[in-house]
Design goal:
Length: 119
């Protein structure tokens, strides 16, 4: 499993040998979907494979802050399973909200996603 420094992840797009990891691009799109005043607290990615496919399993924790955090969290979660993601050489096969917690500053959302290599 790889854990990537979130601050550099989106800015650099590729970190070390992760050139084929779609996490940076997925994370950038998730942050955009969440709107302003959002931070990625954690973003991990690990290889995944089945008999026919290979890809990566991702776990991401986002913190939405501000007076409108609950509203933005509800908007973020609504329809996320049907959302379209633009990834190079991968597609999102599954994405789900695993946890949603109210914090002192707003809302934290933990989600998991499975991306599959698109041949």
């Amino acid at each position: 499993m790889t854990s990537i420094a979130v601050r550099n992840l989106v800015r650099n797009r590729v970190n070390g040998n992760r050139a084929h990891d779609p996490l940076p691009r997925l994370l950038a799109q998730l942050l955009e979907r969440a709107g302003g005043n959002v931070a990625a607290l954690r973003a991990t990615s690990r290889p995944w494979a089945s008999a026919l496919f290979q890809g990566r399993r991702h776990v991401i924790v986002l913190a939405l802050e501000g007076a409108d955090a609950s509203w933005r969290a509800a908007r973020f979660v609504d329809g996320i399973e049907e959302a379209q993601w633009q990834l190079n050489r991968h597609f999102v096969a599954d994405i789900a909200i695993d946890d949603r917690r109210v914090t002192e500053k707003g809302v934290e959302i933990e989600l998991s996603a499975l991306t599959i290599e698109d041949w």
